[in-house]
Amino acid sequence: MRLTVTAIGAGGDGIARTEAGPVFIPRALPGEVVEARLIGKRGDGQAGVVEAILTPSPDRVAPPCPHFEQGCGGCAVQHWAPAAQAGWKRDRLREALARAGYPDAAVAETMTTPPGRRRRADFAVRRGPDGVALGFHLAGSAQLLDLAGCTVLDPRITALIGPLREMLRRLAALRRDGSVVVNLLDTGPDLVLRTDGPLTAAERVTLAHFATQAGIPRIAWALKDGVAEVAVQSGPATILLSGAELTPAPGAFLQASPEGEAAIIAAVLAALPARLVGRGRIADLHAGLGTLSVPLAARGRVTAFESEASAVAALGTAAGRAGVRVTAQRRDLDRQPLTVAELAGFAAVVLDPPYGGAPEQVPLLARSAVPVVIYVSCNPAALARDAKAFAQAGWALSAATPIDQFVHSAQLEAVVAFTRTPQRGSMRDR
C-alpha cells in the first residue's frame, strides 16, 4: 500500500490513517510517503513494514548505530533528527497533561541528555549452537541481537561486551538463557549475573579472574529470579549522589545518566517554593537510594519513604555520614500510602513513582493540604491518569519539564509541579 505518515505514536512508530483504521509503521516518519506491506492486526489497526520510502522527511537522518537498521529494540527513532525528537517528546507531555485536564499547560523545552552517557544496561544472554549471544532483543521480538557496540551506552560499558561474552562462554552455569545487569558506579562497573544453572566453586574463581582483568569491584550472581548474592568483591562499590557516598545493592536502580539525574534534580529544586511553610518538612516518596532526598535536604528536613530495605539502609548510612537532614523510612506506599493526616505536616511532597504511577497515593495527595506536590514521571500515560486527580481537586499546574535521558527511545521523563489553590475557609487559611 502507498501510505502517508501523519504522526509518530507513543512507541515511536509512524502512523498512517486509512479508511480501515490506523497503520503502525516502524521506522517511518511524519510527512513521509511510503510503500508498506501489511503484516497483521495491531491494536485497533494494522501493523505495517516499510518496503520503500517514496518521499523522505527532511528530518530523516542516518542512524548513528549500525544495529538500528538490524532492528535493535533498544532504540526507536535514531533515524529522526534530534530537534524533531525533542519536539515530539515535548508534545507528548503536553498531550498527557491535556488529557489530565490541563489543556493550556506551559511546558518547557525538552532537556536532552547526550548519547554515550547511559550508565545502566540490562543485557540478555543466550547460549546457542554458534556460541553465546549477548545484547538486546529485536523490536517486538524474543529474538536476541548479538551486540558489537552501542552508541547510547557509556563506552566503559560497551567495552565490557566482548570480554563478558567470552567469559560467559566458559560458564556451564549458563545452560541456555541468562542476563547481565551493569551499573556504572564511581568505583567501576557493578554486575549482577543471572543464569539458569547453579554456579560452581570453580566458576566463582572464573568470575574472580574476570573481575580482576576487567576492573570490576563486585559481581553478584543469582539463579534465574532468585535473590542475588555477592559472588566476587575485591573493593568498594560506591557512587556519589549529590555529595553523599552510597553503597547501592547489586542491580539497584539509578537514573539512566548523570546528566539526566542532574536535570531532574534541577527541575525539582526549581519547582519548590522559595520559602517553605511551617517547619520546612519535605516528603520524598518512592525515594530509592535518595537521588532526590539528598539535594532536597539543602532546602528542608527530608523524610524519605522507600519500600526496598537495602535502599533504605544505604540512604540512611550515607545521610548519617554526610551529615545531611534526611531520615529514611521503609514503607510500601502501594499498600500503605501516606494518609491525609500524615501528609498534613509537610510543606512539600516529591513523588517519584515506578512506571505504573501512584494510583493509591495520588488521590490522598490531591485531598491533602500540602502546598506543592512535585511529580517525577517516567510514563506519560500514568502521569495523565494521576494528574487528573489534581485537576479535579482544583490544583494548579505551575511547572512542567520534559527530560529525554533515554535518547532515541520512546521513553520520556518529566517533572511536573502541582500547587494547591487556597480556598476560603480551608484549613490552610485557619
Descriptive report:
One of its GO terms (molecular function) is iron-sulfur cluster binding. The active site is at 378 (nucleophile). Belongs to the class I-like SAM-binding methyltransferase superfamily. RNA M5U methyltransferase family. The protein is of the alpha/beta class and 430 residues long. The chain folds into 3 domains: 2-60, Nucleic acid-binding proteins (OB fold (Dihydrolipoamide Acetyltransferase, E2P), Beta Barrel); 83-114 and 255-429, 3-Layer(aba) Sandwich (Rossmann fold), CATH 3.40.50; 120-246, Beta Barrel (OB fold (Dihydrolipoamide Acetyltransferase, E2P)), CATH 2.40.50.1070. 25% of the residues lie in helices and 31% in strands. An 8-stranded mixed β-sheet has the order 6-21-22-20-19-16-17-18, sandwiched between helices. Strands 9-8-7-10-11-12-13 form a 7-stranded mixed β-sheet. The protein has a 5-stranded mixed barrel with strand order 1-2-3-5-4. β21 (396-404) and β22 (413-419) form a beta hairpin. α2 packs parallel to α10 and α3 runs antiparallel to α4 (201-214). It is flat. The chain starts with a strand and ends in an 11-residue tail after the last strand. Residues 423-430 have low confidence and may be disordered.
